[in-house]
Amino acid sequence: MRVYLLTGIDATKRRLHYSGQLSALLLEPCPTGSNSLCGTQGKRVKFAYFLVGLILVAGVGGVVAIMPSKRDRFQARVRAEARQQGLIVESVRLPRLILRAEDRVSAGGRLRKTSRMCVRYRKRFTRRIDHAPTWRLLRDPSSSTPIVGWRADDDEIRGVNLFQSEFWQAMEALLRDAPQECWGVQALEDSSAWLGTEEPGAASFDAAALRMSKFLDRLEGFHATFSIG
């Protein structure tokens, strides 16, 4: 068995050689009086065109595959606009609250992830709020405590309990304006947060970012009202 080691020049010459052969194959005419795709040569020409077409399709397919979708472009513009309005954009994981058996274990017996990625839009308070409670609510259609359709994350609650009806009734009124793509809301010591995803809809990207910013402003006001002074 012979082994050929090609230098850069040799490799270039070989590529040019094969390129020339392909060009000659495509341009070489058939014998006079014969069919345009004659015999073996016709088959070779067809095969050569097939290879060229395959290369073109693969190239175009690769470009299409890396192009961002409409949803990706919308998300990028919403996040850029949100940053312009002073919001902090972060990626976080939220637990999946409603899980079927097939959501927990795959058909092959492998455990599935019981959490999902989402985006957290966080806005720092415009003023200091002392002794304010911290909490996180997650959307859960099966829950009725502390709010219908929302469940409190027990690990994130400080300074308030599930039986303070006045607090949760006021929060329920605030959450009526939360869009379906909002999976959760959170109050931290220095900021309020909106958790979820961005979906292209009737609202433009700047309107979507402005809506989140205004919602977080209202959440800050609510947070200050129920601070423990």
Brief characterization of the structure:
The chain is of the alpha+beta class and 229 residues long. The protein has helices spanning 8-27, 39-66, 70-84, 101-104, 165-175, 205-225; strands spanning 88-95, 115-124, 135-139, 146-147, 150-152, 182-187, 191-196. Strands 1-2-7-6-3-5-4 form a 7-stranded antiparallel β-sheet.
Structural class: alpha+beta
Number of distinct helices? 6
Gap from first CA to last CA = 87 Å
- Biggest sheet: strand arrangement: 1-2-7-6-3-5-4
Task: Name the beta content range.
Answer: 15-25%
Enumerate the spans where pLDDT stays under 50 for 5 or more consecutive residues. 1-19
- Secondary structure tally: strands: 7
Q: Over the alpha carbons, how many angstroms does the gyration radius reach? A: 31 Å
Taking the sheet with the most strands, its summary is: 7 strands, antiparallel
Mean pLDDT over the residues: 74
Helix content range of the residues, please? 40-55%
- Tertiary shape: elongated
